[in-house]
Amino acid sequence: FTRILEYSPQDVIGKIHTQINLWVNEQDPITIKYLLQYAQVIKQQIFQLRTKSGEIKSFLLSAEEIDINKQACIFFMASDITNITQYSCCISYRCLNDADWTMKYISNDCEKLTGYTVRELVGNNIISYGDMVHPDDSKYVWVTVQQAFANEKAYEISYRIITRSKDIKYIWERGQVIFSRPSSNTNSLHLEGLIEVFTQLNLSEEKLPILRKS
């Protein structure tokens, strides 16, 4: 923490986040708390933090609730992915397991990838993520995710989306199921994961068999 973000323990211990110019988006700590209300864990979500000197870095962040001396706390683990996000568009998300893939959270780079802002995507305010999935790939995406859930496995999947400007982009996605607490039925399912656009790809469908219609 001190090496990457340049803050000493004395800079941060005992202070609340509004006293430290750490979060690029001041809404992010509130978002994290909101996400943890539904599940006690967050896996690999992208957030931006600011170093003491003002540099902005992107982090792949996981979090979970823990108790320390009977006090509720949040334990964070983060990996610096600034160099990765500089050269490719990578976003993280949490969504419902429904036909719309209704977003409960999506990271800020979603606009660079899709053309739609966080506000427009979260809660399907303007468009659902499901509406952006290419019609020829939507069934394949749904079946693949449901099979992964049934087998209690993570999923990796490639498919196409249609952006706001009507461009077609090829997407690689990796995700997993997160159960909302206290229930563990399918109605309480959330999915968390990463979505990345292919920057170099031969667009021949013969080389992308997973995109062929069944």
What does this structure look like?
- With 214 residues, this protein is α+β, with helices and mostly antiparallel strands.
- The protein contains eight helices and eight strands; from the N terminus they run H-H-H-E-E-E-H-E-E-H-H-H-H-E-E-E.
- The protein is 24% helix and 34% strand.
- Strands 5-4-8-7-6 form a five-stranded antiparallel sheet, with helices on both faces. A three-stranded antiparallel sheet has the order 1-2-3.
- It is globular and about 55 Å long.
- The C terminus is likely disordered.
Top keywords for this entry?
214 residues; alpha+beta; five-stranded antiparallel beta sheet; 8 helices; 34% strand
Profile the largest sheet: 5 strands, antiparallel
Count of runs of 4 or more consecutive helical residues: 8
State mean pLDDT (0 to 100 scale): 83
Global morphology? globular
N-to-C SSE series?
HHHEEEHEEHHHHEEE
Which sequence of strands runs across the widest sheet? 5-4-8-7-6
Radius of gyration: 18 Å
Question: How many DSSP E strands?
Answer: 8
Weakly predicted, low-confidence segments? 183-187, 200-214
Distance between the termini: 49 Å
- Give the helix proportion (percent range): 10-25%
What portion of the residues fall into strands of 2 or more residues? 25-35%
Q: Structural class of the secondary structure composition?
A: alpha+beta
